[in-house]
Design a protein that fits this description.
The protein has 421 residues and is α+β, with helices and mostly antiparallel strands. Among the domains are: 54 residues; 94 residues, conserved putative lor/sdh protein from methanococcus maripaludis s2 fold (Beta Barrel); 90 residues. It is 33% helix and 36% strand. It contains 5 helices and 19 strands. A 6-stranded antiparallel beta barrel has the order 2-11-14-13-12-15. Helix 1 runs parallel beside helix 2 and helix 3 packs antiparallel against helix 4. The radius of gyration is 52 Å and the shape is elongated. The N terminus is likely disordered. Belongs to the membrane fusion protein (MFP) (TC 8.A.1) family. This is Macrolide-specific efflux protein MacA. Keywords: Coiled coil, Membrane, Transmembrane, Transmembrane helix. InterPro entries: Beta-barrel_RND_2, MdtA-like_BSH, RND_pump_MFP.
Length: 421
């Protein structure tokens, strides 16, 4: 028994007999499977490389759709809110401020006293002017009496000269005295007129000791305190700044010279302020000024927009960013601007295998004046079809098509993306 077992082990080890035949068949099958796998992988690799080589020059196009909607052509500008009908109130006379009766944001009415300057000196000046006027009026009476006297003396001298009772020299002296009397009367009257004007000026200055409001409105600012001395010399000192009504403001914006041709009176505008970033306020262009201004070598024109501030949220001095609607086109056919700028790529290099590369776009004829070229894709997704269209207004992102052989939803080409191998 032991001898038989040992013989089988030796045969199995040497690969002879039944056990040896089976072992050789297993080894041969294993090598055939490996060889077959290598062949299959080679075929797959060859086909993959061929497919990659065939697609290497095939561009992949980026597309968009023609849409229908509203197109707004706008002009952007920045500016500052200002009070409507703002008035600066100053002092026309010099003196010490005795009282101030109003404060910031207080409503005032026309003729209301805002402040008062100490009138003592002004009253003294008025009294002095009145006294001077009285003196000049008395001087007129004295001159008139002298004139009456010299008139009578002249008449008497002339009568006596006719009778030969007085010398010609005496008549001439009488005439000179009469002339001097007339001049004295005229001078006295002139001095009286000057004194009268001084009286009127003093009275006027006395009335200006009370600073009154010229309008119905609200106090925007106050730059004076009781006890302060103001001097109305070469420039009137500003004491108060008033506004007619903060329920209506104006927005002064700077329009760039390249955009001013699209801005005109009556256009609607929206604007935002930093105080209310989530709110849009409405306004309207009231005027576009013709005077050009320059800032940092940039030429601009000032436009005035009216603003309804009935809720009093806005305040003078706020910085605003306005968007003025210069054109509004409703329910029009729109395409992206990039679609009108797209030009198909030019193929270069040796031709690839059959079927490789994109179909060449048809040769495009020269465009007529005012026309643009638009491209669509053929059914195979590779052939470009050029279309001639007439563009209209643009908002910088989309362009209106006034004439085009396409409709809403048409796919248009905007760009091309090369497939990198």
């Amino acid at each position: 028994m032991k001898s038989e077992i040992a013989t089988d082990d030796v045969a199995r080890t040497l690969g002879v007999g039944a056990h040896g035949a089976r072992s050789r068949w297993l080894r041969r099958s294993k090598w055939w499977l490996i060889a077959g796998g290598v062949v299959v992988m080679g075929v797959v690799a060859v086909r993959f490389v061929a497919a990659r080589a065939g697609r290497r020059d095939v561009p992949r196009y980026l597309t968009a759709h023609a849409t229908r909607g509203d197109l707004r052509v706008t002009v952007s500008a920045t500016g500052t809110l200002a009070a409507l009908g703002a008035v600066e109130v100053g002092s026309e006379v010099s003196g010490r401020v005795q009282n101030v009766y109003v404060d910031y944001n207080q409503k005032v009415t026309k003729g209301q006293v805002l402040a008062e300057i100490d009138p003592v000196q002004l009253k003294a000046e008025a009294t002095q002017a009145g006294a001077q006027l009285a003196a000049n009026q008395a001087a007129i009476q004295t001159a008139m009496a002298t004139l009456t006297e010299t008139t009578q003396s002249l008449k008497r001298a002339e009568a006596q000269a006719t009778d030969g009772l007085v010398a010609a020299k005496d008549v001439e002296a009488a005439r000179a005295a009469f002339s001097r009397a007339e001049a004295s009367v005229a001078s006295a009257k002139a001095q009286a007129s000057l004194a009268s004007a001084t009286v009127s000026s003093s009275a006027w200055k006395l009335t200006k000791a009370k600073i009154v409001s010229p309008i119905d409105g609200v106090v925007l600012s106050r730059s004076v305190e009781p006890g302060q001395t103001v001097a109305a010399t070469f420039q009137t000192p500003i004491l108060f700044k008033l506004s007619t009504d903060l329920g209506a403001l104006e927005l002064n914006v700077q329009i760039d010279e390249s955009d001013v041709g699209r801005v005109r009176e009556g256009l609607e505008a929206d604007f935002r302020v930093d105080a209310y970033p989530d709110r849009v306020f409405k306004s309207r262009v009231r005027a576009v000024r013709n005077e050009a201004k320059t800032s940092s070598n940039v030429v601009y024109y000032e436009a005035i927009l009216t603003v309804d501030n009935a809720d009093h949220l806005l305040r003078p001095g706020m910085t605003a960013t306005a968007t003025i609607t210069s054109e509004l086109h409703s329910n029009v056919l729109l395409v992206p601007n990039v679609a009108l700028r797209f030009e198909p790529p030019t193929k270069s290099g040796p031709p690839g295998p059959p079927g490789a590369g994109a179909a060449a776009a048809p040769a495009s004829a020269p465009l007529a004046k005012g026309k643009k070229r638009l491209y669509t894709l053929g059914p195979d997704g590779r052939t470009l079809a050029p279309l001639e269209v007439t563009p209209g207004a643009t908002d910088g992102t989309n362009t209106e098509l006034t004439e085009a052989p396409i409709k809403e939803g048409t796919t248009v080409v905007t760009d091309v993306e090369e497939v990198v191998p």
